[in-house]
Amino acid sequence: MQWFEIFMKLCGGLALFLFGMETLADGLKAVAGSRMKKVLRRLTGNRVMGVVTGAFVTAVIQSSSVTTVLVVGFISAGLMSLAQSVGVIMGANIGTTITAQVIAFKVTKYALLLVAVGYGITFTARKRWGEHGRMLMGLGLLFLGMLMMGEAMVPLRSHPPFLDWMASMSTPGYAILAGAAFTAVVQSSSATTAVVILLAQQGVVDLAGGIGLCLGANIGTCVTALIAAVGRPREAMRAAVVHVLFNVFGVLLWIGLIEHLALISETVSPSHPELQGADRIAAETPRRIANAHSIFNLLNAMVLLPFAGLFARVVEWMVPDRSLRHEAQVRAKYLDDHLLDTPSFALDHARLEILHMGNRVRHMLEKAFPVVLTGTAEELDKLEALDDDVDILHGTIVEYLGKISQRSLPEELTTELVQLFEAVNSLESIGDLIERNLVPLGRSRVNDKVQISKATSDVLNGVHQSVTKAYEAALLAVTQRNAEAGDLVLSMKPDLKGQAEEARQHELKRLIASEPNRVLAYSIETDYVEHLMQIFYFCRRMARVGR
């Protein structure tokens, strides 16, 4: 037997299969990503709809990991609870079974046709249709990889040691361990399922062994989720642990019931009594394995969904919040490189990170008034230090947006990307204004022992409060795409200019007051108003982005 040739075809076919699946998923995410994101956000109000939505979205975008990453973002933004996310993750497991269902149909003979048509569309059609061509080409490569693996397995049908090894897969524990190990290595439960169905098509694995291998794949795929969650926010780790618990509990529920699952699958699957022996096994078993895979995940969701709240509480206990000391070091909370292949998702998470950065800038702006006008030198140092975190987040977000810009983007996403660049730069400019302009004013006040009168402080506070209101509305406009908030900021210009002018007139009147350091106080007060108006200018730039 030509072992090297068999090994070469198996590895090459598996590589083509995985590459085809990745290409297909990229095309699907580019075509349907934005719509799937909206569906996921809107239809997860209860657990049952969460399961349905998670299954639908994952079936369309062909990536349970992307669905999980989106869920993490929604939890972090307060749009979804951890208990609600359990249903979506359960649904994602159901959605992944669509791959097995497609593979079970013997469509590999169309592989080269799909590759040729997909290639032609990709390189001759416009950008939007090009993504459809990419989907077809990916599907063709996937089928071509299966065809190569199937051809490689043909000689194994008559090789006794291999047949004996496959016969041992009828032992549930052994089959589950083998499926888990293979999936952990190739990092794709769909690839494991494809290999199992191809083995079944060659008649070398029976239904019980195929089901055991697929159950093992459900456990092995958890390794991918855990690896992806390492070093990421606690919400991501919790979502990964939910995935692990659900899959492991599901397998434990069925490990002693594989024969019953096989019987259910046989009942709902077509049979071929006209065939005999290995030919009949090869004709019937692939569809039955695919159906068993779907039934297994569907029944698991039905059985375990009522315990979603308990799952959430257990996971929160297993993965507690980090200590305040550990969280003191600023880091990005929402940016995830797994989403870069789906730019619409990546841009949404960039908005969440901009909100994270914006909240820190807002904290600086709120502290600026009391600290600059009445604070101590130590308080001014602390205010100045806050901009270090803002600068770190600014650099991280700009780098992430740069990665998105390297992807193939439709025109509307390119416009959105440019707007987010402008918004994050405006936020950074506001932080710099506080650090480099307002803090030095406070230091001049402290060094020269200048006292700001109660009347002047009240006037300046009025301007400061208006600018803060404009800032909050501008941040809402950018991060939530709230056009009304953007319009509010732009409409504030006349009133704020009036307030600034009233403040200047008040300061002129106070210039002749018989108080020490009156000229220095006047300079600090007028500069303070001027810098607030510069902050308002950047708020207006942000507001235009959100309209």
Describe the structure.
The chain is an all-alpha fold and 547 residues long. The chain folds into 2 domains: 3-318, no CATH class; 337-546, Up-down Bundle (Methane Monooxygenase Hydroxylase, Chain G, domain 1). Helices cover 82% and strands 0% of the residues. The chain contains 22 helices and no strands. It has helices at residues 3-42, 47-61, 64-76, 82-104, 111-124, 127-153, 160-167, 172-186, 189-201, 207-229, 234-254, 258-268, 277-304, 308-318, 324-327, 343-374, 377-405, 411-447, 454-480, 483-491, 493-510, 518-546. Helix 3 (64-76) packs antiparallel against helix 4. The longest helix has 40 residues, at 3-42. The protein is elongated and about 110 Å long. The termini are far apart. The model is unreliable at 324-328 (pLDDT under 50).
